[in-house]
Protein backbone atom coordinates (compact mmCIF):
# COMPACT_ATOMS: atom_id res chain seq x y z
CA UNK A 1 0.00 0.00 0.00
CA UNK A 2 1.43 3.39 -0.98
CA UNK A 3 1.65 6.47 1.16
CA UNK A 4 2.28 10.16 0.63
CA UNK A 5 5.37 11.08 2.61
CA UNK A 6 5.84 14.42 4.33
CA UNK A 7 8.60 16.61 2.98
CA UNK A 8 10.67 16.90 6.16
CA UNK A 9 10.65 15.54 9.68
CA UNK A 10 12.60 15.92 12.89
CA UNK A 11 14.57 12.87 14.05
CA UNK A 12 16.74 12.40 17.08
CA UNK A 13 20.32 11.42 16.33
CA UNK A 14 23.29 10.79 18.58
CA UNK A 15 26.56 12.34 17.48
CA UNK A 16 29.63 11.66 19.66
CA UNK A 17 27.32 10.64 22.49
CA UNK A 18 25.37 13.92 22.48
CA UNK A 19 21.68 13.91 21.62
CA UNK A 20 20.95 16.51 18.97
CA UNK A 21 17.96 17.34 16.79
CA UNK A 22 18.71 17.44 13.06
CA UNK A 23 16.29 18.38 10.29
CA UNK A 24 16.62 15.67 7.66
CA UNK A 25 15.07 15.30 4.24
CA UNK A 26 12.73 12.33 4.70
CA UNK A 27 11.86 11.39 1.12
CA UNK A 28 13.17 13.50 -1.67
CA UNK A 29 10.23 14.05 -3.95
CA UNK A 30 10.77 15.23 -7.51
CA UNK A 31 7.80 15.91 -9.73
CA UNK A 32 5.59 13.57 -7.71
CA UNK A 33 8.12 10.72 -7.85
CA UNK A 34 10.49 9.32 -5.25
CA UNK A 35 13.88 10.66 -6.32
CA UNK A 36 16.21 8.10 -7.86
CA UNK A 37 13.61 5.31 -7.98
CA UNK A 38 12.43 3.71 -11.22
CA UNK A 39 8.69 3.34 -11.88
CA UNK A 40 9.08 -0.43 -11.65
CA UNK A 41 10.40 -0.13 -8.06
CA UNK A 42 8.14 2.67 -6.84
CA UNK A 43 5.71 0.36 -5.02
CA UNK A 44 8.58 -1.24 -3.10
CA UNK A 45 9.72 2.14 -1.77
CA UNK A 46 6.30 3.66 -1.03
CA UNK A 47 5.65 1.53 2.06
CA UNK A 48 5.70 2.14 5.80
CA UNK A 49 8.67 -0.24 6.02
CA UNK A 50 11.51 -0.80 3.61
CA UNK A 51 13.66 -3.96 3.32
CA UNK A 52 17.20 -3.74 1.96
CA UNK A 53 18.46 -6.40 -0.41
CA UNK A 54 20.80 -7.63 2.31
CA UNK A 55 17.74 -8.29 4.51
CA UNK A 56 17.78 -5.25 6.81
CA UNK A 57 14.32 -3.73 7.46
CA UNK A 58 14.02 -0.03 8.27
CA UNK A 59 11.09 2.39 8.68
CA UNK A 60 9.81 3.73 5.39
CA UNK A 61 10.61 7.28 6.41
CA UNK A 62 14.32 6.42 6.57
CA UNK A 63 14.48 6.18 2.77
CA UNK A 64 16.34 9.11 1.19
CA UNK A 65 17.06 10.64 4.60
CA UNK A 66 20.73 11.16 3.66
CA UNK A 67 21.84 8.40 6.02
CA UNK A 68 22.92 5.00 4.68
CA UNK A 69 20.96 2.27 6.48
CA UNK A 70 21.72 -0.39 3.81
CA UNK A 71 25.54 -0.41 3.83
CA UNK A 72 25.98 -3.25 1.32
CA UNK A 73 23.41 -2.40 -1.34
CA UNK A 74 22.81 1.31 -0.69
CA UNK A 75 19.14 0.68 -1.57
CA UNK A 76 17.69 3.16 0.91
CA UNK A 77 19.42 6.25 -0.55
CA UNK A 78 18.77 6.34 -4.32
CA UNK A 79 18.11 10.10 -4.17
CA UNK A 80 21.04 11.15 -1.94
CA UNK A 81 24.82 10.60 -2.03
CA UNK A 82 24.85 8.92 1.41
CA UNK A 83 25.53 5.34 0.19
CA UNK A 84 28.67 4.52 -1.78
CA UNK A 85 27.03 1.48 -3.44
CA UNK A 86 23.65 3.05 -4.26
CA UNK A 87 22.14 3.69 -7.71
CA UNK A 88 20.18 6.73 -8.85
CA UNK A 89 17.59 6.27 -11.60
CA UNK A 90 17.56 8.98 -14.28
CA UNK A 91 14.09 9.24 -15.84
CA UNK A 92 15.55 11.21 -18.77
CA UNK A 93 12.19 12.20 -20.18
CA UNK A 94 12.39 12.20 -23.97
CA UNK A 95 15.46 10.00 -23.94
CA UNK A 96 16.54 6.57 -22.67
CA UNK A 97 16.32 6.11 -18.88
CA UNK A 98 19.56 5.09 -17.20
CA UNK A 99 21.27 4.67 -13.83
CA UNK A 100 24.18 6.60 -12.31
CA UNK A 101 25.94 6.04 -9.01
CA UNK A 102 23.94 7.68 -6.24
CA UNK A 103 27.20 9.14 -4.92
CA UNK A 104 26.99 11.57 -7.87
CA UNK A 105 23.68 13.01 -6.71
CA UNK A 106 23.96 16.67 -5.76
CA UNK A 107 27.67 16.93 -6.67
CA UNK A 108 27.12 19.91 -8.95
CA UNK A 109 27.66 17.91 -12.16
CA UNK A 110 24.74 17.11 -14.43
CA UNK A 111 24.91 13.35 -15.03
CA UNK A 112 21.27 12.81 -16.07
CA UNK A 113 20.25 14.58 -19.27
CA UNK A 114 17.07 15.78 -17.51
CA UNK A 115 19.10 17.09 -14.54
CA UNK A 116 17.24 14.89 -12.05
CA UNK A 117 20.45 14.01 -10.19
CA UNK A 118 20.84 17.67 -9.19
CA UNK A 119 17.23 18.25 -8.17
CA UNK A 120 18.05 19.79 -4.80
CA UNK A 121 21.49 21.29 -5.50
CA UNK A 122 22.14 24.85 -6.59
CA UNK A 123 23.30 23.64 -10.01
CA UNK A 124 20.96 24.52 -12.85
CA UNK A 125 20.96 21.64 -15.37
CA UNK A 126 19.76 22.16 -18.92
CA UNK A 127 17.55 19.39 -20.26
CA UNK A 128 19.53 17.90 -23.15
CA UNK A 129 17.50 14.71 -23.51
CA UNK A 130 15.85 15.65 -26.82
CA UNK A 131 19.16 16.53 -28.46
CA UNK A 132 20.73 13.32 -27.18
CA UNK A 133 17.74 11.35 -28.42
CA UNK A 134 18.22 12.62 -31.97
CA UNK A 135 21.87 11.55 -31.93
CA UNK A 136 21.00 8.26 -30.28
CA UNK A 137 18.34 7.44 -32.86
CA UNK A 138 20.82 7.98 -35.71
CA UNK A 139 23.33 5.77 -33.91
CA UNK A 140 20.73 3.08 -33.18
CA UNK A 141 19.51 3.07 -36.77
CA UNK A 142 23.05 2.45 -37.98
CA UNK A 143 23.46 -0.34 -35.46
CA UNK A 144 20.09 -1.77 -36.45
CA UNK A 145 21.09 -1.87 -40.13
CA UNK A 146 24.49 -3.37 -39.30
CA UNK A 147 23.04 -6.09 -37.09
CA UNK A 148 20.19 -6.81 -39.52
CA UNK A 149 22.69 -7.33 -42.35
CA UNK A 150 24.86 -9.37 -40.03
CA UNK A 151 21.97 -11.60 -39.05
CA UNK A 152 21.17 -12.25 -42.71
CA UNK A 153 24.80 -13.21 -43.29
CA UNK A 154 24.69 -15.31 -40.14
CA UNK A 155 21.66 -17.21 -41.42
CA UNK A 156 23.61 -18.05 -44.56
CA UNK A 157 26.59 -19.09 -42.44
CA UNK A 158 24.37 -21.29 -40.29
CA UNK A 159 22.89 -22.99 -43.34
CA UNK A 160 26.28 -23.53 -44.94
CA UNK A 161 27.75 -24.64 -41.62
CA UNK A 162 24.92 -27.12 -41.12
CA UNK A 163 25.52 -28.65 -44.54
CA UNK A 164 29.27 -28.79 -44.02
CA UNK A 165 28.89 -30.37 -40.61
CA UNK A 166 26.59 -33.01 -42.06
CA UNK A 167 29.17 -33.61 -44.77
CA UNK A 168 31.94 -33.92 -42.17
CA UNK A 169 29.83 -36.32 -40.09
CA UNK A 170 29.19 -38.45 -43.19
CA UNK A 171 32.88 -38.25 -44.05
CA UNK A 172 33.81 -39.47 -40.57
CA UNK A 173 31.43 -42.43 -40.77
CA UNK A 174 32.77 -43.35 -44.20
CA UNK A 175 36.31 -43.04 -42.87
CA UNK A 176 35.36 -45.23 -39.91
CA UNK A 177 34.04 -47.95 -42.25
CA UNK A 178 37.01 -47.59 -44.62
CA UNK A 179 39.35 -47.74 -41.64
CA UNK A 180 37.86 -51.02 -40.44
CA UNK A 181 37.97 -52.53 -43.95
CA UNK A 182 41.53 -51.36 -44.52
CA UNK A 183 42.61 -52.72 -41.14
CA UNK A 184 41.19 -56.12 -42.08
CA UNK A 185 42.97 -55.92 -45.44
CA UNK A 186 46.27 -55.10 -43.75
CA UNK A 187 45.89 -58.11 -41.49
CA UNK A 188 45.23 -60.36 -44.52
CA UNK A 189 48.22 -58.91 -46.38
CA UNK A 190 50.35 -59.39 -43.28
CA UNK A 191 49.46 -63.09 -43.14
CA UNK A 192 49.97 -63.46 -46.91
CA UNK A 193 53.38 -61.81 -46.58
CA UNK A 194 54.40 -64.12 -43.74
CA UNK A 195 53.31 -67.20 -45.73
CA UNK A 196 55.07 -66.01 -48.90
CA UNK A 197 58.27 -65.25 -46.99
CA UNK A 198 58.28 -68.74 -45.47
CA UNK A 199 58.16 -70.23 -48.98
CA UNK A 200 60.73 -67.72 -50.17
CA UNK A 201 63.11 -68.62 -47.35
CA UNK A 202 62.71 -72.32 -48.06
CA UNK A 203 63.58 -71.84 -51.72
CA UNK A 204 66.46 -69.48 -50.99
CA UNK A 205 67.85 -71.93 -48.44
CA UNK A 206 67.74 -74.68 -51.07
CA UNK A 207 69.51 -72.45 -53.59
CA UNK A 208 72.07 -71.46 -50.99
CA UNK A 209 72.71 -75.11 -50.06
CA UNK A 210 73.14 -76.08 -53.70
CA UNK A 211 75.55 -73.21 -54.25
CA UNK A 212 77.50 -74.23 -51.16
CA UNK A 213 77.82 -77.85 -52.38
CA UNK A 214 79.02 -76.73 -55.79
CA UNK A 215 81.57 -74.45 -54.25
CA UNK A 216 82.87 -77.14 -51.89
CA UNK A 217 83.25 -79.58 -54.80
CA UNK A 218 85.10 -76.98 -56.83
CA UNK A 219 87.27 -76.16 -53.84
CA UNK A 220 88.14 -79.85 -53.40
CA UNK A 221 89.10 -80.25 -57.03
CA UNK A 222 91.29 -77.18 -56.94
CA UNK A 223 93.02 -78.34 -53.76
CA UNK A 224 93.83 -81.81 -55.22
CA UNK A 225 95.36 -80.30 -58.34
CA UNK A 226 97.48 -77.91 -56.29
CA UNK A 227 98.73 -80.67 -54.01
CA UNK A 228 99.70 -82.84 -57.01
CA UNK A 229 101.67 -79.99 -58.60
CA UNK A 230 103.42 -79.31 -55.30
CA UNK A 231 104.46 -82.96 -54.90
CA UNK A 232 105.91 -83.04 -58.41
CA UNK A 233 107.85 -79.83 -57.76
CA UNK A 234 109.30 -81.17 -54.50
CA UNK A 235 110.38 -84.39 -56.22
CA UNK A 236 112.33 -82.51 -58.90
CA UNK A 237 114.02 -80.21 -56.37
CA UNK A 238 115.15 -83.12 -54.18
CA UNK A 239 116.74 -84.95 -57.08
CA UNK A 240 118.66 -81.86 -58.14
CA UNK A 241 120.11 -81.30 -54.69
CA UNK A 242 121.10 -84.85 -53.75
CA UNK A 243 122.89 -85.91 -56.99
CA UNK A 244 125.71 -84.42 -59.12
CA UNK A 245 126.85 -85.29 -62.70
CA UNK A 246 128.40 -88.53 -61.55
CA UNK A 247 125.37 -89.42 -59.46
CA UNK A 248 127.17 -88.87 -56.14
CA UNK A 249 126.16 -86.46 -53.46
CA UNK A 250 127.89 -83.06 -53.53
CA UNK A 251 129.71 -82.12 -50.37
CA UNK A 252 130.79 -78.73 -49.23
CA UNK A 253 132.99 -77.30 -46.51
CA UNK A 254 129.96 -75.41 -45.41
CA UNK A 255 126.90 -76.95 -43.84
CA UNK A 256 124.71 -78.44 -46.52
CA UNK A 257 121.89 -76.16 -47.68
CA UNK A 258 118.63 -77.76 -48.85
CA UNK A 259 117.82 -75.04 -51.45
CA UNK A 260 119.33 -74.13 -54.81
CA UNK A 261 122.34 -71.88 -54.56
CA UNK A 262 120.62 -68.81 -55.90
CA UNK A 263 118.24 -68.89 -52.93
CA UNK A 264 120.93 -69.41 -50.29
CA UNK A 265 121.55 -66.65 -47.75
CA UNK A 266 125.22 -66.26 -46.75
CA UNK A 267 125.17 -63.45 -44.26
CA UNK A 268 123.53 -60.21 -43.20
CA UNK A 269 125.50 -58.13 -45.68
CA UNK A 270 124.41 -60.18 -48.61
CA UNK A 271 121.25 -59.03 -50.31
CA UNK A 272 118.66 -61.42 -51.56
CA UNK A 273 118.51 -61.99 -55.27
CA UNK A 274 116.21 -59.65 -57.07
CA UNK A 275 113.98 -62.48 -58.13
CA UNK A 276 113.58 -63.86 -54.62
CA UNK A 277 110.03 -64.25 -53.39
CA UNK A 278 108.62 -63.92 -49.88
CA UNK A 279 107.11 -67.31 -49.30
CA UNK A 280 106.05 -66.78 -45.69
CA UNK A 281 102.69 -68.27 -44.73
CA UNK A 282 101.33 -64.76 -44.21
CA UNK A 283 102.17 -63.74 -47.75
CA UNK A 284 101.03 -66.74 -49.77
CA UNK A 285 98.15 -69.09 -49.31
CA UNK A 286 99.37 -72.58 -50.02
CA UNK A 287 96.25 -73.32 -52.03
CA UNK A 288 96.24 -70.05 -53.94
CA UNK A 289 92.43 -69.69 -53.34
CA UNK A 290 90.37 -66.91 -51.73
CA UNK A 291 89.22 -67.43 -48.08
CA UNK A 292 86.32 -69.88 -47.95
CA UNK A 293 82.79 -68.54 -47.29
CA UNK A 294 79.48 -70.27 -46.66
CA UNK A 295 77.21 -70.69 -49.69
CA UNK A 296 74.44 -68.48 -48.29
CA UNK A 297 76.74 -65.47 -47.82
CA UNK A 298 76.17 -62.78 -50.43
CA UNK A 299 73.07 -64.39 -51.88
CA UNK A 300 71.04 -61.54 -53.44
CA UNK A 301 67.27 -62.05 -53.72
CA UNK A 302 67.22 -59.82 -56.77
CA UNK A 303 69.40 -62.38 -58.55
CA UNK A 304 66.70 -64.98 -58.03
CA UNK A 305 63.77 -64.60 -60.39
CA UNK A 306 61.65 -67.54 -59.37
CA UNK A 307 57.85 -67.28 -58.96
CA UNK A 308 58.21 -67.92 -55.23
CA UNK A 309 60.57 -64.98 -54.67
CA UNK A 310 58.47 -62.71 -56.89
CA UNK A 311 55.34 -63.68 -54.95
CA UNK A 312 57.01 -62.72 -51.66
CA UNK A 313 58.18 -59.44 -53.17
CA UNK A 314 54.64 -58.65 -54.34
CA UNK A 315 53.22 -59.56 -50.91
CA UNK A 316 55.61 -57.13 -49.21
CA UNK A 317 54.67 -54.38 -51.66
CA UNK A 318 50.93 -54.94 -51.15
CA UNK A 319 51.34 -54.78 -47.38
CA UNK A 320 53.41 -51.59 -47.58
CA UNK A 321 50.80 -49.86 -49.77
CA UNK A 322 47.94 -51.01 -47.53
CA UNK A 323 49.71 -49.80 -44.37
CA UNK A 324 50.31 -46.39 -45.96
CA UNK A 325 46.63 -46.15 -46.93
CA UNK A 326 45.63 -47.20 -43.42
CA UNK A 327 47.76 -44.41 -41.90
CA UNK A 328 46.13 -41.86 -44.23
CA UNK A 329 42.64 -43.06 -43.34
CA UNK A 330 43.43 -42.96 -39.63
CA UNK A 331 44.70 -39.36 -39.91
CA UNK A 332 41.61 -38.35 -41.88
CA UNK A 333 39.35 -39.95 -39.26
CA UNK A 334 41.21 -38.32 -36.35
CA UNK A 335 41.21 -34.86 -37.99
CA UNK A 336 37.50 -35.07 -38.81
CA UNK A 337 36.66 -36.27 -35.30
CA UNK A 338 38.65 -33.40 -33.76
CA UNK A 339 36.82 -30.91 -35.98
CA UNK A 340 33.38 -32.27 -35.04
CA UNK A 341 34.25 -32.27 -31.33
CA UNK A 342 35.29 -28.58 -31.37
CA UNK A 343 32.96 -26.11 -29.64
CA UNK A 344 31.83 -23.69 -32.37
CA UNK A 345 29.54 -21.68 -30.11
CA UNK A 346 25.75 -21.67 -29.73
CA UNK A 347 24.02 -23.35 -32.69
CA UNK A 348 27.49 -24.01 -34.17
CA UNK A 349 27.30 -20.44 -35.46
CA UNK A 350 31.09 -20.22 -35.90
CA UNK A 351 31.50 -23.59 -37.65
CA UNK A 352 32.03 -21.98 -41.04
CA UNK A 353 35.07 -20.06 -39.74
CA UNK A 354 37.21 -23.15 -39.12
CA UNK A 355 38.50 -23.15 -42.71
CA UNK A 356 38.97 -19.37 -43.09
CA UNK A 357 41.85 -17.00 -42.36
CA UNK A 358 41.66 -13.18 -42.24
CA UNK A 359 44.59 -10.75 -42.54
CA UNK A 360 45.01 -7.22 -41.19
CA UNK A 361 47.81 -4.75 -41.94
CA UNK A 362 48.92 -2.36 -39.21
CA UNK A 363 52.09 -0.36 -39.81
CA UNK A 364 54.85 -2.64 -41.02
CA UNK A 365 53.20 -5.78 -39.66
CA UNK A 366 50.64 -8.11 -41.19
CA UNK A 367 48.47 -9.96 -38.69
CA UNK A 368 46.65 -13.13 -39.63
CA UNK A 369 43.97 -14.96 -37.67
CA UNK A 370 42.74 -18.43 -38.53
CA UNK A 371 39.81 -18.99 -36.14
CA UNK A 372 40.15 -22.11 -33.99
CA UNK A 373 43.74 -22.53 -35.22
CA UNK A 374 46.23 -19.70 -34.62
CA UNK A 375 47.18 -16.02 -34.80
CA UNK A 376 50.44 -14.83 -36.38
CA UNK A 377 52.40 -11.66 -37.07
CA UNK A 378 54.63 -11.36 -40.13
CA UNK A 379 57.10 -8.83 -41.45
CA UNK A 380 58.91 -9.42 -44.70
CA UNK A 381 59.58 -13.14 -44.96
CA UNK A 382 59.51 -13.93 -41.24
CA UNK A 383 56.48 -14.96 -39.20
CA UNK A 384 55.90 -15.14 -35.44
CA UNK A 385 53.19 -17.16 -33.70
CA UNK A 386 51.01 -15.03 -31.42
CA UNK A 387 49.21 -18.06 -30.03
CA UNK A 388 47.26 -21.19 -30.83
CA UNK A 389 43.54 -21.47 -30.16
CA UNK A 390 42.87 -22.43 -26.57
CA UNK A 391 39.32 -21.68 -25.41
CA UNK A 392 36.28 -19.42 -25.45
CA UNK A 393 35.81 -16.70 -22.85
CA UNK A 394 33.30 -14.19 -21.51
CA UNK A 395 30.19 -16.14 -22.46
CA UNK A 396 31.22 -16.79 -26.07
CA UNK A 397 32.28 -13.20 -26.70
CA UNK A 398 36.07 -13.73 -26.78
CA UNK A 399 38.66 -16.24 -27.99
CA UNK A 400 41.92 -17.00 -26.21
CA UNK A 401 45.03 -17.97 -28.19
CA UNK A 402 47.96 -19.13 -26.03
CA UNK A 403 51.38 -20.84 -26.26
CA UNK A 404 52.72 -18.59 -28.99
CA UNK A 405 56.39 -18.00 -29.72
CA UNK A 406 58.27 -16.98 -26.58
CA UNK A 407 59.37 -13.37 -26.35
CA UNK A 408 63.03 -12.66 -25.84
CA UNK A 409 63.54 -12.79 -22.09
CA UNK A 410 59.76 -12.76 -21.65
CA UNK A 411 56.58 -14.87 -21.66
CA UNK A 412 55.04 -16.89 -24.45
CA UNK A 413 52.96 -14.69 -26.72
CA UNK A 414 49.17 -14.78 -26.35
CA UNK A 415 46.21 -13.04 -27.98
CA UNK A 416 42.73 -12.25 -26.72
CA UNK A 417 40.22 -11.75 -29.53
CA UNK A 418 37.10 -9.67 -28.83
CA UNK A 419 34.16 -10.65 -31.05
CA UNK A 420 31.50 -8.28 -32.34
CA UNK A 421 28.68 -8.31 -34.86
CA UNK A 422 29.33 -7.33 -38.46
CA UNK A 423 28.17 -8.14 -41.97
CA UNK A 424 31.53 -9.73 -42.89
CA UNK A 425 34.58 -11.32 -41.29
CA UNK A 426 37.25 -8.70 -40.68
CA UNK A 427 39.84 -7.59 -38.15
CA UNK A 428 39.02 -4.11 -36.84
CA UNK A 429 42.11 -3.46 -34.73
CA UNK A 430 45.20 -5.02 -33.16
CA UNK A 431 47.11 -3.81 -30.11
CA UNK A 432 49.74 -4.91 -27.60
CA UNK A 433 48.61 -3.54 -24.21
CA UNK A 434 51.49 -5.27 -22.43
CA UNK A 435 54.68 -7.01 -23.53
CA UNK A 436 53.87 -9.97 -25.78
CA UNK A 437 50.18 -9.87 -24.78
CA UNK A 438 47.98 -8.88 -27.72
CA UNK A 439 44.34 -7.88 -28.16
CA UNK A 440 42.41 -8.12 -31.41
CA UNK A 441 38.92 -6.92 -32.28
CA UNK A 442 37.30 -9.24 -34.81
CA UNK A 443 33.96 -8.63 -36.50
CA UNK A 444 31.88 -11.51 -37.84
CA UNK A 445 28.23 -12.24 -38.70
CA UNK A 446 28.45 -15.24 -36.35
CA UNK A 447 28.43 -12.80 -33.39
CA UNK A 448 25.21 -11.08 -34.44
CA UNK A 449 22.32 -11.67 -32.06
CA UNK A 450 18.59 -11.47 -32.61
CA UNK A 451 18.29 -10.45 -28.95
CA UNK A 452 20.57 -7.46 -29.51
CA UNK A 453 18.57 -6.45 -32.57
CA UNK A 454 15.33 -6.60 -30.58
CA UNK A 455 16.87 -4.47 -27.81
CA UNK A 456 17.90 -1.80 -30.31
CA UNK A 457 14.48 -1.84 -31.94
CA UNK A 458 12.80 -1.47 -28.53
CA UNK A 459 14.98 1.56 -27.79
CA UNK A 460 14.07 3.06 -31.15
CA UNK A 461 10.39 2.49 -30.48
CA UNK A 462 10.71 4.18 -27.10
CA UNK A 463 12.53 7.18 -28.55
CA UNK A 464 10.95 7.91 -31.91
CA UNK A 465 7.35 8.76 -30.85
CA UNK A 466 8.72 11.32 -28.43
CA UNK A 467 11.10 13.00 -30.87
CA UNK A 468 9.20 12.76 -34.19
CA UNK A 469 12.39 11.92 -36.09
CA UNK A 470 11.91 11.53 -39.83
CA UNK A 471 12.48 8.06 -41.30
CA UNK A 472 15.45 9.24 -43.35
CA UNK A 473 17.39 9.73 -40.13
TrEMBL record:
Residues 355-450 form the MRH domain. It holds the Pfam family PRKCSH-like. Keywords: Coiled coil, Disulfide bond, Endoplasmic reticulum, Signal. GO terms for cellular component: glucosidase II complex. Residues 208-317 are annotated as: Disordered. SUPFAM superfamilies: Mannose 6-phosphate receptor domain. GO terms for biological process: N-glycan processing. Residues 158-199 form a coiled coil. It comes from the Eukaryota. PROSITE patterns: MRH. Residues 243-256 have a biased composition (Acidic residues). This is Glucosidase 2 subunit beta. It comes from Spongospora subterranea.
Amino acid sequence: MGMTPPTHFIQDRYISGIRVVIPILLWAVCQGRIAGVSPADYERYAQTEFTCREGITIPGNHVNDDYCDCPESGDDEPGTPACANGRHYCHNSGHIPTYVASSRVGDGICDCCDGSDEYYSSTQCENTCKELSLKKIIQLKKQEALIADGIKAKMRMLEQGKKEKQYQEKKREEARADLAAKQAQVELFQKAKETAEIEEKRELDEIASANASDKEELHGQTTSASEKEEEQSESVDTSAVESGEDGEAQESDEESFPYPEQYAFHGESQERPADSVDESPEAVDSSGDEPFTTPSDGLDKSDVNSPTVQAAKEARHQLSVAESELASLRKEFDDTSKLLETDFGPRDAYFGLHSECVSFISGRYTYRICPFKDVSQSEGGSSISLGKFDTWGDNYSTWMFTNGQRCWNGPERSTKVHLSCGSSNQVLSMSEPSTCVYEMHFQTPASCSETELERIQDNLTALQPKTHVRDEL
